[in-house]
Amino acid sequence: MPQFLGLDSSTQSLTAVVLDIDTGKVVLEQSVRFGQELPQYRCPNGFLENHDNRIRHSDPLMWAAALDRLFAKCKSAGMDWSKIAGICGSGQQHGSVYLNDHFFDLHLAPDRDLAEQIKPCLSRATSPIWMDSSTSAECAEIAKAAGGEEKVTAITGSRPIERFTGPQIRKFYKENPAAYRQTARIHLVSSFMASLLCGGDAAIDPGDGAGMNLLDLSTLQWSDILLAATAPELASKLPRVVKNGTAVGQIADYFIKRYGFRPGTPIFVWSGDNPCSLVGMGATAPGVAVISLGTSDTFFAAMPAPRTDPQGYGHVFGNPAGGFMCLICFTNGSLAREEVMKKVGLDYEGFARAILEETQPGNAGNMLLPYFGNETTPRLQSTAPRLFGDEEFKNWKKPAAAARAIVEAQAISMKIHSAWIGVTPTTVRVTGGASKNEGILRVLADVFGARMVRLSISNSASLGAALMAAQAVTNRRWEDLYAVFSAASPGGIDPDLSQAKIYEKLAGEFRRRLCECYGICS
């Protein structure tokens, strides 16, 4: 019975998921935590300490060492790696690895650790990751050279973003031009890890490539305009871009001899963690959206065509199952909900009861703008919530109304700031800690006019990667794979469509207040 391996190289860990699609079982879930298990790389939280908190880099040798540790750990526990028929993976998006020309002559000796052999190939000792926010100047320079932020968004699906790879490359070129000249290849975390597995130079997929401010969505190839705006001779330093499901090599002899992988095992092009999570959550078809209710809330969904957010808040990536996907982040997620609970003295049970039993849709005219700090969508700095309604409500004297107000505001903000994708979801798959709250799901269902179903999937990125490997080898329909491995929890919450006019009116009021208070008008 063939099995399929999905790997996820995230900020703080490397995780493996192995699927047996004939039995429909997950036969392995195992992780290596960088801080605890690889302390020698000085990345206790997945990144190196720096006195400048805008700078967030990791040691790429740690990611190589994690592969060795993970495979050895699983083999010692009885995992037979020779059963693996295909491998794919997920990498934390936007992180980059800088390699010299020794990388192209890589011959991995099975009697020496992987990190030891990769070290001479690095032209830059550290890798900027998605948490880095030190490239504001470079974002402005790229935008100016390319013809403005709107031009960059139209080409790449995102405005110039500090954590994206293009601005990070430009900063490296400016600060260390000699090391930049010595750089023969710039890989993403995803393509670097795939390269290690096949002992060669792996390609990049459109899902992760679109998170670089360098990929032209209309061609799914590197944009000449953005390459020229970023750094000289950059085209020669980037891997090729290939569609998902493309084999980028076979498992290297190193892993065959050291861990018992089967010769000829295909390595398929990896993607970013967000595209892989779209697959793992079974949401690669337009009409099904995912809302993750975490510290920050995230909305992502498949798109049939590469439309872009005219306000520049959302992002567009390639969809591993074909087409495109959007991702929109709302920084004030659970943190904002918890701030409201603290202010009015409610726990999660009381929060749900306030929405379901003690208040009505529209909240009797009481509403708030739900920003307790910096916000990504819309872009706001150092904000505080704004309350509108009667005096008791504005003074936090109505706990039930405050509970409904934060949830209605967040749901409406998600809906109006995702309208640009041009697809109205009929089903929303909801995950994250707050998805257990019936009150929150009731409001989301009524605001979106869509059925809410819970997902209890863990390790969605590595699961998605394993499904991508399985689909590439077996050519099974995505729907059949999802029915087994990405099924939603029983039950769900259907919308009360009689509330549509109330929420349409509230959305108009929300837009008016946003324009009035922050000058964000649409």
Can you summarize this structure?
The chain has 522 residues and is α+β, with helices and mostly antiparallel strands.
Describe the structure.
The protein is an alpha+beta fold and about 525 residues long. It folds into two domains: about 270 residues, ATPase, nucleotide binding domain (Nucleotidyltransferase, domain 5, 2-Layer Sandwich); about 210 residues, Nucleotidyltransferase, domain 5 (2-Layer Sandwich). It is built from 20 helices and 21 strands. Strands 16-17-15-14-20-21 form a six-stranded mixed β-sheet, sandwiched between helices. It is globular, with a radius of gyration of 23 Å. The N and C termini lie far apart (about 55 Å). The model has no long low-confidence stretch (mean pLDDT about 95).
> If strands are numbered along the chain, what order do they take across the biggest sheet?
16-17-15-14-20-21
Biggest sheet character = 6 strands, mixed
CATH architecture of the largest domain: 2-Layer Sandwich
The top-level CATH class of the largest domain is: Alpha Beta
Total helices: the number is: 20
Structural class: alpha+beta
How many domains is the backbone divided into? Answer: 2
User: Do you know the CATH topology of the largest domain?
Assistant: Nucleotidyltransferase, domain 5
Shape: globular
In CATH, the homologous superfamily of the largest domain goes by the name ATPase, nucleotide binding domain
The percentage helix is 25-40%
Strand content: 15-25%
Contiguous runs where pLDDT drops below 50 for at least 5 residues: none
Rg (CA only): 23 Å
